[in-house]
Amino acid sequence: MKDKITRHIKIMYPNYSDEDISTFLNYDDINTQNLVKWKLQGHQDLKNALTDVETKYKDVKTLEKSVCDLHQTIIELSALIEMNDEIIDNIYDHVNDAQYFTEKANVDLIEARNIQKKTSKWMFYLTVTIIILILIIFFPIITKII
C-alpha cells in the first residue's frame, strides 16, 4: 500500500523529495480523510497543470501562426526587393543610354554646323559664279542692244 501511495505522490508532486514522502507516510495519523484531502489537492494541482499546458499550447500555436505569417511577409518582401532591383537596373541602363545618345547628339550637332557652314560657303560661291556667268552671257547682248 505504501508503495502505491508513494507512486501516486511522486506523480502528483514530482518536486517532493523522498524524505517529504517518507515523512508523510510515517506520520501516525494517516487516515482516509487526510488521504482523500491530499488526493483532491493533487487532482486540483493536476487540473491547474493541465490548464497551464493547454494555455502554453495555445500560445505556441499562436506563435507558430505568427511565425508563418512573418515568413510569408518576408518572402513577399524579398520578391518586392528583387522586382525593385530589376527596375533600378532598368533605370540605370536607360540613364546610361540617354547619356550616350546625348553625347552622340552633341557630336552630330557640331558636325551638322560644320556641314552647314561649308554648304553655305559653297552656295555663296555657286551663286556668285552663276551671276558672273549670267553677266558674261548677257553683257554682250545688252551692249549690242544699247
UniProtKB/TrEMBL annotation:
Keyword match Membrane: yes
InterPro entries on file: SNARE (IPR010989), Syntaxin (IPR045242), T_SNARE_dom (IPR000727)
Membrane-spanning segments: 122-142
UniProt key word Phosphoprotein: no
GO cellular component: endomembrane system; plasma membrane; SNARE complex
One of the GO biological process terms: vesicle fusion
Alphabetic keyword roster: Membrane, Transmembrane, Transmembrane helix
Predominant location: membrane
Topological relation to the membrane, as annotated: Single-pass type IV membrane protein
Localization terms from the record: Membrane
A GO molecular function held by the record: SNARE binding
Annotated CDD domains: SNARE_syntaxin1-like
Residue stretches making up the T-SNARE coiled-coil homology domain: 50-112
Family to which the UniProt record says this protein belongs: Belongs to the syntaxin family.
Name the UniProt record assigns to this protein: Syntaxin
Natural source organism: Plasmodium falciparum IGH-CR14
